[in-house]
UniProtKB/TrEMBL annotation:
Pfam families: DAP_epimerase. Belongs to the diaminopimelate epimerase family. It catalyses: (2S,6S)-2,6-diaminopimelate = meso-2,6-diaminopimelate. This is Diaminopimelate epimerase. Pathway: Amino-acid biosynthesis; L-lysine biosynthesis via DAP pathway; DL-2,6-diaminopimelate from LL-2,6-diaminopimelate: step 1/1. PANTHER family: DIAMINOPIMELATE EPIMERASE, DIAMINOPIMELATE EPIMERASE, CHLOROPLASTIC. Homodimer. Its EC number is 5.1.1.7. It comes from Ulvibacter antarcticus.
């Protein structure tokens, strides 16, 4: 069987994209997805994304982590699939699609994609950390000396000891100014640090605002893979009009034969 694929990346968070509008991809094969995402035995990616037909919107997004399991929302993946839809000629400069957490709207300007994220109404504050769901669950914790911090070790420890079987993504943060933060993320389902996490930096921006670490509703997030911005409105009920913005681009295409 031959499966055409496209490789995309958004600030170094990389994805295999498959146009599944004709249903060519068998969806319940965890081993196959994990093998495709394997960096030594496969194409290599943090996740695999299917673009599918939607009855009313431009397309539907189905997201798998690199461990082969279906998961919750992927912000960088949402920005990349919008570029992919443009490359396929499905959309031009705006896109409306459905993902596991609901409706998303994207605006595509050259390499830059701005993605509207789900509203956030609940934030749990603890002494040392913040927990919130921005489409995916995120633990946010401030550390000093982020550059040398052992993200893989500490991230795995927090993910497993605090959040149990369901797990969570774990973001470590260092302030660089009032509205600029450096972020490194341990991703559930990849079970390692990735170069960037879109729902992760969104969680960091909201957590920094909620805890008074920033007074700005437009925050710059520096990740190992590049720079993202998050803007939002704070309402009495929580956060609305949340936009994640940054570069997302095509890398290469090929055919997976199995
Ligand atoms: N890289 C993603 C997050 C993907 C989902 C996450 N690994 C999970 O299972 O919660 C992003 O850019 O948001």
């Amino acid at each position: 069987m031959e499966i055409p694929f496209f490789k995309y990346q958004g600030t170094g968070n990389d994805f295999v994209m498959i146009d599944n509008r004709q249903g060519i991809f068998i969806k319940n094969n965890t081993e196959l997805v994990a093998k495709i995402c394997d960096r030594r035995f496969g194409i290599g990616a943090d996740g695999l994304i299917l673009l599918e037909n939607h009855p009313d919107l431009d397309f539907n997004m189905v997201y798998y982590n690199s461990d082969g399991n279906l998961s919750s929302m992927c912000g960088n993946g949402g920005r990349c699939i919008s570029q992919f839809a443009k490359q396929l000629g499905i959309v031009d400069i705006t896109a409306k699609f459905e993902a596991v957490d609901g409706l998303h709207e994207a605006s595509i300007q050259g390499m830059n994609v701005s993605l509207k994220m789900a509203d956030v109404s609940r934030i749990s504050l603890s002494e040392n950390c913040t927990f919130l769901d921005t489409g995916s669950p995120h633990h946010v914790q401030i550390v000093s000396q982020l550059d040398t911090f052992d993200v893989d070790y500490e991230g795995a420890n927090i993910r497993n000891s605090i959040y149990g079987k369901e797990g969570a993504n774990v973001n470590f943060v260092q302030a660089l100014g009032n509205d600029i933060f450096s972020v490194r993320t341990y991703e559930r389902g990849v079970e390692a640090e990735t170069l960037s996490c879109g729902t992760g930096v969104t969680a960091v921006a909201l957590a920094m605002f909620e805890t008074g670490k920033t007074t700005s509703n437009k925050v710059t997030l520096q990740t190992p893979g590049g720079v993202l911005t998050v803007r939002f409105k704070k309402q009495a009920t929580g956060f609305t009009d949340i936009y994640l913005e940054g570069p997302a681009s095509f890398v290469f295409k090929g055919i997976w034969t199995c």
